[in-house]
Amino acid sequence: MSEILNCRGLTKRYSGKLALDHLDLSLESGRVVGLLGPNGSGKTTLLKIAAGLLTPTSGSLLIDGKEPGKATKAAVSYLPDRQAVAPEMRVAALIQKFSDFFTDFDAGQAETLLKDMAIDLNLRMKEMSKGMADKVQIVLAMSRKARLYLLDEPIGGVDPAARERILKTIIANYNPEATVVIATHLITDVEPVLDDIVFLKDGQAVLHQDAETLREKYDESVDERFKEVFSC
Amino acid sequence: MKWHIDVHQPIYPQLLRQIERRILAGEYQPGEKLKSVRDLAEEAGVNPNTMQRAMRDLEQSGLVHARRTLGRFVTEDTALIAKNRHKLAEKTMQTFLIQMKEMGFSSEQAIDQLRLFIQDREQPSDGGEEKSLEGENHE
């Protein structure tokens, strides 16, 4: 197993407030990783640095040995927690845009997945429900053959049926040599699909473990463990 | 059979057990080609690596075998399937007898109770809810 992401002493400070505090973390290829932590624990900041949208205050984050930049962006598929596409755009136009922008984007796969979900390609983003718009964005993110997927709250704000559908789309479509990072606070829903668990607390990784080992060791679910770790 | 995943326990043994049951019950027929690990993982809503681990164990037990490039198949060895089915049935009966004994029933009495229970179930007297003996078998 090779290492896809490495953080050493990674620190991010926003006008006095520490979002990431000397974070050390190493993620291997071929894993589905749950980045779990309460609001404000640093999940989004970490993903944004990995996606090359923020620069660290100090310390380092390397993707496959390289600092985030043009080269790593081609290998990283990032799904932001807020809608990042123009509301006026139709789905078909978005697919075209992704095809132009990312050489690893599989337009055929995206169209098939959207048809399976009964999403009309002629719809504009602003004409959709939140659940539908989330599905479109997850399909776009997962239709790239990336080496690292960074998904920020992919199932936040959608109903349980849509959650299941989105998670199954992720499982069925990620490249097996790639790593998928799912940042969320909805632990119960994502738990069965995770290989590894990272608990983020006050900008530090307080636990990083194989999910099955954690269930064996503590004889409880990841969600229960989470509540114990964060109940102070 | 529907997939039933309890996240309070390790998932891989649950998958192993449920696939084994499907083979023993004939839901997956001898010699039948199984879906890919990824498709099965998607169906069960679990991580593909966890499903892969369950498959490796099934291969070791001989119930499933992999054919290079063709995929995985249920064994054609019906004697092996019968043997495993018998072993699992023995385990279930043992659990039943132990639990009945803990409630003070002798083996003979336990059998009588079981017979009565089956008779009651088979008489469609009232439209009341039918209780099922099959449930999760906690080991």
Give the topology:
The complex is a heterodimer of chains A (232) and B (139).
Chain A: E1 3-14, E2 17-28, E3 32-36, H1 43-50, E4 58-63, H2 70-73, E5 76-79, H3 91-101, H4 107-116, H5 130-142, E6 148-152, H6 160-173, E7 179-184, H7 187-190, E8 196-201, E9 204-210, H8 211-218, H9 222-229
Parallel strand pairs in A: 3-7, 3-8, 5-6, 6-7
Antiparallel strand pairs in A: 1-2, 1-4, 8-9
Helix pairs in contact in A: 5-6
Chain B: H1 11-24, H2 37-44, H3 48-61, E1 64-67, E2 71-74, H4 78-102, H5 107-122
Antiparallel strand pairs in B: 1-2
Helix pairs in contact in B: 1-3, 2-3
Write up this protein.
- The complex is a heterodimer of chains A (232) and B (139).
- By secondary structure, chain A is α/β, with parallel strands linked by helices.
- In chain A, 34% of the residues lie in helices and 27% in strands.
- In chain A, the strands form 2 sheets. In chain A, strands 5-6-7-3-8-9 form a 6-stranded mixed β-sheet, sandwiched between helices. A 3-stranded antiparallel β-sheet of chain A has the order 2-1-4, with helices on one face.
- In chain A, helix 5 (130-142) packs parallel to helix 6.
- The longest helix of chain A is centred in the C-terminal third of the chain and has 14 residues, at 160-173.
- The termini of chain A are far apart.
- The longest helix of chain B has 25 residues, at 78-102.
- The two termini of chain B are 20 Å apart.
- Chain B is mainly alpha-helical and 139 residues long.
- Helices cover 55% and strands 6% of the residues of chain B.
- Chain B is elongated and about 55 Å long.
- The relative contact order of chain B is 0.11.
- A two-stranded antiparallel sheet of chain B has the order 1-2.
- The interface between A and B is medium-sized, with 25 and 18 residues.
